[in-house]
Every structure is written in structure tokens, then in C-alpha cells.
Amino acid sequence: MINEKCLSAPDVALREITADDLLKVANIHVDSFPESALTKLGVESVRRYYLWQLNGSHEKVRAVAAYVKTDSVGFSFSGVFNGSTSGFISYNRNFLIRRVISRPWLLFNPLFRERLRSGIKILRNFTKKEQSKNSVIKRERPKSFGILAIAVSPNHQKFGIGKILMIDAENEAVKCGYDRMHLTVNPGNQKAIRFYENLNWKKLVNGDKWTGSMVKILV
Questions:
Q1: Residue in 161, 207, 200 with CA at minimum distance from that of residue 181
Q2: DSSP 3-state assignment of 78?
Q3: Would 126 disulfide with which of 11, 27, 86, 154, CB 3.0-4.6 Å?
Q4: Where are the alpha helices (DSSP H) in 61-143?
Q5: How far apart are the first and last CA of the chain?
Q6: Torsions phi, psi of 24, nearest 5?
Q7: 8 Å CB contact between 181 and 173
Q8: Whole-angstrom Cα distance, residue 155 to residue 28?
Q9: Which among 40, 45, 48, 62 has a CA at the least distance from the CA of 150?
Q10: What is the distance between the alpha carbons of residues 52 and 54, in angstroms, rounded to a whole number?
């Protein structure tokens, strides 16, 4: 457990996330991202997603929750992840199929259909990689430390909690010897983009269209 003293804002403390905390994490995710495809599959789907991030075969995971007194009000998952989406889908495919079948109205949602097609493609690629895993002799050390997810409960936003979580992830990246960080944000989420830019993150543009990739060079 991280030292529970306040980091830089009154009454805010960070604690390492365990599996027992994931229902709280899932509820914060649902409240913060009500329109996400994962949210629409239900709280248990979200909990399983973060369980995979916590316990999957990743290079490095930093998972922390922000508390105000005894209330969990935010969280972040950062590190170097292997198959953060593909692994989740692969190991939960039967559960996810049942979820989609029990919610047929989701198929009328264009965003959900797009995410579903993307998920199927990711799963196919993951299966191919698993089949050829034995042919891989050596993996290079990843050159970048990622922010996989960060969220703050809507009732506790604008109090600097998100910044505390981002600084914690950055400190972990530096501690682990990384000089670069990356994340992906919805290009239409101007509020989140401004938040990252205020913390010196830059848009990473390939070609004429920006797809939401951002980077930060650590000094």
C-alpha cells in the first residue's frame, strides 16, 4: 500500500488497487464514461476489463485509486501492457458474447457496432499472435510508458485529482527508467485534450488526420 498521506491536495490519498477494489473502479468508469461501449455491456464487463489489466501478463502495471477520506473518487492504470484489449476479449469471449446477446438493442448503436467490429478484428489478430508465439525469440523492451485509463468521479472533478493521478503515473515512468509516455484520447473530447495539454502532453499526428494519440517526453 502506498503511504496514505495526502500528496498535493487536501484530503486526497492514493492507494494501490487490488482485485477487491475493482467494483468501485468499475462504477467510477461507468459514471465517467456513460457512452462507452464497455459501459453499455454493464458493470461486470467493466470490472472484468480492469481485472485483466491488473492480473494479465503485462510488462508493468501501476494501478492506483484516489481517495477522499474513505470514498474512492478516481483511479488510473498505467504501465506497459500486453494485449490490454485483445487479452481481455480473448479470456472473456463467452461472457461478452452472452452480454451482447442479452442486449440486442446495442447493435442499433453505430458507435457500439464500430467497437464490436474492432473487437472482433483485435481478437483475430490476438489469436494469430498466440499461435505464432513460439516463433518469437526475443522481445525488445518497450520504449514508452502508457496511460491506459484514468477517470475521476463526476462529483469530484475540478479538484486536481486527475492531475495527482497523472503525476503519479509520470513518477512511476521515471522510476522505471522511461523517457517517454503515451496515451490515446477521443479526438472529440476537448475537455480531456485541454487537460492533457495543460500537463505538457502533445498531439502525435501521422499524416493529415489526428486520431487521438498523445505523447509526453520526460526530462
A1: 200
A2: strand
A3: 86
A4: 86-91, 93-102, 110-131
A5: 27
A6: -65, -40
A7: yes
A8: 10
A9: 62
A10: 5
| 60-68/145-152 β-pairing | unpaired
The contacts found for 95-100 with CB under 8 angstroms, 24 or more apart, are 95/45, 95/48, 96/41, 96/45, 99/41, 99/42, 99/45, 100/41
Q: What is the pTM of this model?
A: 0.83
Q: What is the distance between the alpha carbons of residues 68 and 205, in angstroms, rounded to a whole number?
A: 37
Q: Ramachandran region of residue 69, left (φ > 0), alpha (ψ -120 to 50) or beta? A: left
**Phi, psi dihedral angles at 160 (to 5 degrees):** 85, 5
Rounded CA separation 24/27 (Å): 5
Radius of gyration of the chain measured on its C-alpha atoms: 18
- Residue 92: all three cell numbers together: 472473456
Residue 101 burial (C-beta neighbours within 10 Å; 0-12, 13-18, 19+): exposed
Give the Cα separation of 123 and 127 in Å (integer).
6
pLDDT digits (tens, 9 = 90+) for 21-73: 999 999 999 999 998 889 999 999 999 999 999 999 899 999 999 999 899 99
pLDDT in tens, 104-145: 877 767 666 666 566 566 555 555 555 444 444 344 555 899
Check if the beta carbon of residue 102 is closer than 8 Å to that of residue 26: no
Strand partners, 24: none
Closest CA to 145 of 167, 176, 187: 176
